[in-house]
Write a structure and sequence with these properties.
It is a single chain. This protein is of the alpha/beta class and 201 residues long. It is built from 5 helices and 12 strands. The protein is globular, with a radius of gyration of 17 Å. The chain binds NADP nicotinamide-adenine-dinucleotide phosphate (NAP). The site of NADP nicotinamide-adenine-dinucleotide phosphate (NAP) has 29 residues, from strand 3, strand 4, helix 3 and helix 5.
Length: 201
Amino acid sequence: MATGPQGGEVAPTPDSRRGRAVLPLAIVAAIGENGVIGDGRGLPWHLPSDLKHFRTITMGKPVLLGRRTFESIGRALPGRETIVLTRDRAFQTPRSGPRDGHISVAHDLDTAFDLAQARARALGAEEVIVAGGGDLYESLIDRAQRMRLTLVDLAPRGSVRFPVVDWSDWLETCRVRPRPTAKDEATFAFVDFDRRRCLSL
Ligand SMILES: NC(=O)c1ccc[n+]([C@@H]2O[C@H](COP(=O)([O-])OP(=O)(O)OC[C@H]3O[C@@H](n4cnc5c(N)ncnc54)[C@H](OP(=O)(O)O)[C@@H]3O)[C@@H](O)[C@H]2O)c1
């Protein structure tokens, strides 16, 4: 058994058992000052610059999405391979168009994790993206090695929050405060964090 992020034991994944390096999981999220990330139906702000940033940093990588977030987007993410998490074995993805990325469905975290690792290797991606929502962030934050956060200068209403973070585990590596465009509803900063110690996944 390997040691998990909280010091407990975690079962080795097939990748670590085979001696292959596990590609890092990177959480990508936009978070309000009050921790809110969504209202259950969609994003609680209008920030085209953040959507563009999301597209840039996720392009060409496998993206894990909770079923509710996937349904709020309603389609495949072009140029990315989407892996939707749902416990519903009857879940059907919408038919994707020719320019849409591929969509897979996984019914548990380990299957999603292993599929994402395999797809990242096949795509030549250096990381796997965890793109929410709140339920999925909560489930995977302990396995994440990186976080790329957009800290939004708003405190919107909303029932979905980012999980509580133990910031002593994380090292801020980059912070930029882009000039918002006229279409952005608020100011924001892009802030990257690396976990201070490697995880044995
Ligand atoms: N601000 C941001 O950066 C950001 C990013 C993404 C999403 N959001 C917002 O977050 C909200 C949605 O978040 P949410 O917490 O309600 O839902 P969610 O995390 O998107 O999806 C939750 C669903 O994912 C599936 N799931 C989660 N863990 C699973 C597991 N271990 N195994 C199998 N399936 C699993 C379940 O689907 P089933 O019920 O089908 O079993 C669960 O109900 C929306 O408002 C969205 O706009 C914000």
